[in-house]
């Protein structure tokens, strides 16, 4: 049974009172112990205490109620979960269809109607994503500045290019803000994405790329954004050539766009933020400053020369104290050990936000605006 999946997700919802928090913990413990009726009762009490509950709390409660033979309550809670968005992926729908914990609902007409609604919603979402991807892949080609295209015809939006590294075509995206003018030199931000070791291929065909928060930064600060792509066997974790290819990309972009060569900035998220330390620790650099979100300042390709992180070319980093991917205490320890040598390392902290805090809309807008106001000065 996939109870553990739901137990792990229960804690992701909004804040609630101490009494409801305790009831939720009791319900989770009951569910794990397969004491379903007790779990259902505690979920019910918790929901009465809480001002709002989350998707997976309602789904977990529905599982408990279904196994306590309270099918009406189980369906009711599933409806609430559905209204909040449950069933947005094939995995979530299959959980309801195949997990033994929901078998008691399999003949229930309301349950089957919910599943049909989820299937319809997912089909519409997948069709939308398909059309969105087609448009994305058309736009990133049509926005390219080709050799025969006049230099001043840079369209706002995204354009796809490639570099060749020993026969491997390595993609990168250039984002052009609406305020870009070819007659005026424009600063540029290089962003190195995270999740490198989980990628078997470059994901430039995925239209979700355009939702990366860094592109809003580019628009708001009238900056060109250079977004290289990486994958497990060619990325800024284990392959030095992937690091060095960034310099080639910069040179290519400078031939196509009116870049202010004195105002090029580089950084990234997670693996990309870690990679920024390699670039920042080079003795000579084309970059004015560096930035890192949720980094782990330990490189697989060699030691970081912290003494080369200078006030003239500073590195700004932000870590969240509740980061479970790269331990905050470990990162803080590395900073404290090297801060005397790394005179340009500006170490910043947020209390909460987890590893992916830049993707949290409640955090990132204000944080990124304030952060890049400092980085890009």
Number of helices: 12
CATH topology term of the largest domain: Rossmann fold
SSE sequence, one letter per element: HHHHHHHEEEHEHEHEEHEH
Uncertain residue segments: 11-18
| Strand runs, count | 8
- Which structural class is indicated by helix and strand composition? alpha/beta
CATH architecture assignment of the largest domain: 3-Layer(aba) Sandwich
Proportion of residues in β-strands: 15-25%
- C-alpha-based Rg, rounded: 24 Å
| Largest sheet geometry | 8 strands, mixed
> CATH homologous superfamily name of the largest domain?
Alpha/Beta hydrolase fold, catalytic domain
Helical amount among residues, as a percent range?
A: 40-55%
Number of individual domains:
2
Biggest sheet, spatial arrangement of strands: 1-2-4-3-5-6-7-8
Mean pLDDT: 92
Please write the CATH class name of the largest domain: Alpha Beta
Overall geometric form: globular
Distance between the termini: 54 Å
Signal peptide: 1-17
GO molecular function: hydrolase activity
Keywords: Hydrolase, Signal
Protein name: Peptidase S9 prolyl oligopeptidase catalytic domain-containing protein
């Amino acid at each position: 049974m996939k109870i553990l999946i739901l137990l792990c997700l229960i804690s992701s919802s909004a804040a609630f009172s101490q009494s409801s928090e305790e009831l939720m913990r009791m319900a989770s413990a009951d569910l794990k112990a397969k004491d379903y009726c007790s779990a259902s009762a505690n979920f019910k009490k918790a929901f009465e205490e809480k001002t709002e509950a989350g998707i997976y709390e309602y789904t977990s409660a529905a599982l408990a109620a279904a196994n306590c033979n309270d099918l009406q309550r189980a369906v009711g809670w599933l409806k609430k979960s559905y209204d909040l968005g449950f069933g947005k992926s094939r995995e979530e729908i299959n959980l309801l269809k195949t997990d033994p914990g929901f078998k008691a609902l399999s003949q229930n007409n309301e349950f089957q109607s919910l599943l049909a609604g989820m299937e319809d919603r997912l089909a519409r979402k997948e069709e939308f994503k398909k059309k969105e991807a087609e448009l994305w892949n058309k736009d990133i080609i049509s926005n390219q500045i080709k050799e025969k295209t006049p230099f001043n015809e840079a369209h706002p939006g995204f354009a796809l290019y490639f570099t060749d590294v020993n026969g491997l075509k390595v993609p990168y995206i250039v984002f052009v803000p609406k305020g870009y003018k070819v007659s005026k030199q424009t600063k540029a931000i290089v962003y190195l994405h995270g999740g490198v070791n989980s990628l078997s291929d470059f994901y430039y065909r995925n239209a979700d790329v355009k939702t990366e928060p860094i592109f809003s930064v580019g628009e708001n600060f009238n900056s060109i954004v250079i977004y290289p792509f990486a994958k497990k066997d060619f990325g800024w974790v284990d392959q030095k050539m992937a690091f060095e290819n960034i310099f080639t990309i910069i040179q290519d972009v400078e031939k196509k766009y009116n870049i202010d060569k004195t105002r090029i900035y580089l950084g990234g998220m997670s693996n990309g933020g870690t990679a920024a330390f390699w670039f920042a620790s080079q003795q000579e650099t084309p970059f004015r400053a560096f930035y890192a979100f949720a980094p782990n300042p330990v490189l697989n390709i060699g030691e970081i020369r912290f003494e080369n992180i200078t006030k003239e070319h500073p590195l700004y980093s932000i870590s969240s104290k509740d980061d479970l991917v790269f331990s905050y205490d470990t990162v803080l320890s590395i900073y404290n050990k090297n801060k005397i040598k790394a005179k340009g390392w500006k170490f910043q902290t947020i209390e909460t936000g987890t590893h992916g805090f830049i993707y949290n809309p409640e955090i990132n807008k204000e944080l990124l605006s304030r952060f890049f106001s400092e980085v890009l000065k």
